[in-house]
Amino acid sequence: MKRSFLVVILAGMLVGILGGCAANDGKQAQSDTIRIGLAAPISGTQAQYGQAFKNGAELAAAQINEAGGIDGKLVEIVVQDDKGDSNEAVNVANKFVSDKSILAVVGHFNSSATLATAPVYNKNKIVEISPSSSAPGVTHAGEYTFRVITTDAFQADYLAGWSKELGYSKVALIYEQSDFGLGLLDVYQKSAPEYGVEVVAAEAYNPGDKDFSTILTKIKEKQPEAIFIGGFYNEAALISQQAKKLNLSVDFIGVDSLYSEALLELGGESVEGFKIIGFFFPGGDNEEATKFAADYEAAYNSQPDTYAAYSYVATSVVIEAIKEKGADRESIKTYLETLKDYKGATGVLSFDENGDVETIPSKLTVQDGKFELYK
Questions:
Q1: What is the CATH number of the domain that holds 198?
Q2: Which residues form the Leucine-binding protein domain (predicted)?
């Protein structure tokens, strides 16, 4: 990594920390800076996702700053910790909207947090663009609410269709007890019969659970051909390991939330053959994804997960909006409403009239301990 690039990353992190303090009192930033808020679970049980958010956003800012900024002004990422909690997220939203120097907000991570904060952002006419809130309800959260991740409805329906292509006739669901997991459950249950797929079981777990033996034992009795995991990669790795111990021999399928090197590291041989859909896949035919992965590894000495990529893209489109339309809250919204075919690390993006992203996923599988395009 270039020494200058490392300096820019470190400087951006320091500015973000100092900027967070300024955001609390609502004071205007200096005129030579452009400030973008980042709302994420920096602490708590979902802190690893918050760190991915932070890294992705700060990388996007560092790159534009290394290139001279926007009209000579540096971009600052102002980080606020919503702890993955809806009530704290509302507090964070109120801090951001009261600081007129914050031009847009990248976040929140949880759909429940985004739904809770959307009225605050929309009332104050500031764009909130979520990298990860995929619950169907976000579609109608307001005209200032955007997201670069597709809806759970889209992903669950797409996966139901792929289940048929894979030859599954009986599928069980294990889903997170959250707006995210419930959204996946609801749509897959409705879509599966249309594709000739029977849902033979549906078992919920709470985020952070470690023991899945009871629900796996129940599912084993139903003899499914595959288990759809409607959750995140940490729990997915544990589920696959515990299924193997119970001699439950099934395929596993899931949405893009499972795409992470952590799934491979934590799950080991038990996640071999996993089939997921994904929008961020470096090394494939998306040059932007491959470039982002290389830049991220150079900056942080680790490989990015899908949430780092989504955060990078969300921050990048806000930066692009400011470059094209100026440093103004309303202008950012206008730009995003007309954005078409933006080439990013998570695919070619456009937004529909509800602020939902329009893009097409890749079909991926785990083969020999690596993610590969499914053939």
A1: 3.40.50.2300
A2: 33-353
